[in-house]
Amino acid sequence: MKLRRARATRRGRIEIIPMIDVMFFLLATFMLTSLAMQRLDAVRVNLPQGQAERMSQDKPLTLSVTRTNQVFVNRQAVRLDQVTQAVAHRLQRDGTIVIAADDGASHGVVVEAMLAARRAGATHFLMAVHRE
After folding, report:
1. Are 75 and 97 in contact (CB under 8 A)?
2. Number of domains observed in the structure of the chain
3. Are strands 71-73 and 61-65 parallel, antiparallel or unpaired?
4. Which 3 state secondary structure label does DSSP give 78?
5. Residue-wise pLDDT tens for the chain (132 aa)?
6. How many Cα atoms occupy the beta-carbon half-sphere of 131 within 13 Å?
7. Which residue range is the domain that position 63 belongs to?
8. CA distance 35 to 55
9. Cβ(63)–Cβ(114) under 8 Å?
10. Using the 8-state DSSP alphabet, how is residue 98 labeled?
11. Does residue 39 belong to any structural domain of this protein?
12. CATH number assigned to the domain comprising residue 111
């Protein structure tokens, strides 16, 4: 006859589900923190409504067009014929420019500013929108 011990020994288990929960919580926390740290160095304009993802770049070059069709490059007022020179001095290696145009700005002025920036070497244009 085989006798059992009064207390059976059990092997310890590592529960992975709580560890996964903690890792997802940390991931979400770091993602929200990094998104909150983004700064858009632009002139204050009324942006159109839209759906867009957050930018990953720290401080992009911003080309702003106000309701009165004034053009700004990183908060510095420039004339439309000076946009090419102003962008060429400030353009980063990736060639990305954020366009922050007021929804009351003239479409033609925005397009002319974008074409001048393209002549300066800009290759990617991102449109800034107000998130809903």
Report:
1. no
2. 1
3. antiparallel
4. strand
5. 666 666 667 777 778 888 899 999 999 999 888 877 666 555 566 666 666 566 555 677 888 998 898 999 888 889 888 888 888 888 877 778 888 888 888 888 888 998 998 888 888 888 887 766
6. 4
7. 49-131
8. 8
9. yes
10. E
11. no
12. 3.30.420
